[in-house]
Amino acid sequence: MNLTNNLIIAMPxxxxxxxxxxxxxxxxxxxxxAMGLTINHPTNxxxxxxxxxxxxxxxxxxLASIPVYLGGPxxxxxxxxxxxxxxxxxxxxxxxxxNDELSLSSSRDILIAIANGAGPSNFLITLGYxxxxxxxxxxxMEENSWLNVIADNDIIFNTPTDKRWExxxxxxGIDINLxxxxxxxx
Length: 186
Hints:
Elements: E1 6-10, E2 23-30, E3 33-38, E4 42-46, H1 47-53, E5 67-70, E6 74-84, E7 95-97, E8 102-105, H2 108-115, E9 123-133, H3 136-142, E10 146-150, H4 153-157, H5 164-170
Parallel strand pairs: 5-9
Antiparallel strand pairs: 1-2, 1-10, 2-3, 3-9, 4-5, 6-8, 6-9, 7-8
């Protein structure tokens, strides 16, 4: 099973505090492992704060309060931008095309484009990413740590952050709040 372009939804019993009630978008899944971004754990940093730290002027003031998310525990000092493919600039480097609609970038160029209003119409910015070694995500899926569903851009970009966990599960027809986190008890 290839999970690229899937949302993985943490089961209620997942005890890892970094992934509790999380939804992660899987950007790439190969035999070597998987890489994704958690899309529902905002940090206390917003877009304006990030740009200020990088000395990038913000021309589009309405973007100032957009949250920056904790994408996962790996490379938390590095930014990643999941974005729509409706605008592409040749100067954007370090871009992975995930599918016809989405790409992942990690360059300063895309942040400048977004700040100037020349960037993609949809984007989500994270610090860090979630990574799984060879066979790890498959094992976690077998252990029922995660549910998975084909990604939905509306959940990624438009659903309020605090509703993404429930909304992703509802895409499968599951009310995740009715699933018990306890297992093996009679």
